[in-house]
Amino acid sequence: MVGIVPIEQAQQIADASGMDLVLISPNPDNPVCRVMDYGKYQYEQAKRDREARKRQQTIEVKEVGLKLSTEEHDLAYKLRNAERFLGDGNRVKISIRFRGREMAYTNQGYDVMADVAKRLEDIAVIDRPARVEGRNMVMFLAPRKDNK
């Protein structure tokens, strides 16, 4: 902490110590500068950024596709996959594709989605409720926070 110093004197102090004069806050009223090794500072900052990227977890969206006529065993198998995806911390997109005349029975699709949500309610929360988008019905589930 040197205090208020003219720019020329600050540059001389930095040159004498073999370091750089770095502008920290470019506020026109009172600019703040610091005497430091700028190359070392950049290296340390890049190192912190790499560590932060290493620790962050990317969340993917995995899809489980169903039909109105999906039988019980197949549904259980697909829900086991959804449980595994949710256990890994990923979001799950449950989709039902309506083909041909099935578009007239979208209410049955809502029943299937409600059944899926009920079966997975202990490990998942509904992120986006079921809704029809064209010939597909889509619902998003996210892992419960209290499970981890």
Helix content: 25-40%
Question: Can you identify the CATH superfamily of the largest domain?
Answer: Translation initiation factor 3 (IF-3), C-terminal domain
Q: Any low-confidence stretches, pLDDT <50, length ≥5?
A: none
**SSE string, helices as H and strands as E:** HEEHEHEHEE
User: What does the largest sheet look like?
Assistant: 4 strands, mixed
Number of helices: 4
CATH architecture of the largest domain: 2-Layer Sandwich
Strand content: 25-35%
Mean pLDDT: 90
Number of strand segments: 6
Strand order of the largest sheet: 3-4-6-5
The Rg value, from CA coordinates, equals 29 Å
Q: Structural class, judged by helices and strands?
A: alpha+beta
CATH class of the largest domain: Alpha Beta
CATH fold group of the largest domain: Translation Initiation Factor IF3
Provide a descriptive summary of the structure in words.
With 148 residues, the protein is of the alpha+beta class. The chain folds into two domains: 7-55, Ubiquitin-like (UB roll) (Roll), CATH 3.10.20.80; 61-143, Translation initiation factor 3 (IF-3), C-terminal domain (Translation Initiation Factor IF3, 2-Layer Sandwich). The chain is built from four helices and six strands, in the order H-E-E-H-E-H-E-H-E-E. The chain has helices spanning 7-17, 38-55, 72-87, 106-119; strands at 20-25, 32-36, 61-66, 91-97, 124-133, 136-143. Helix 3 links the parallel strand 3 (61-66) and strand 4 (91-97). The longest helix has 18 residues, at 38-55. The two termini are 46 Å apart. The mean pLDDT is 90.
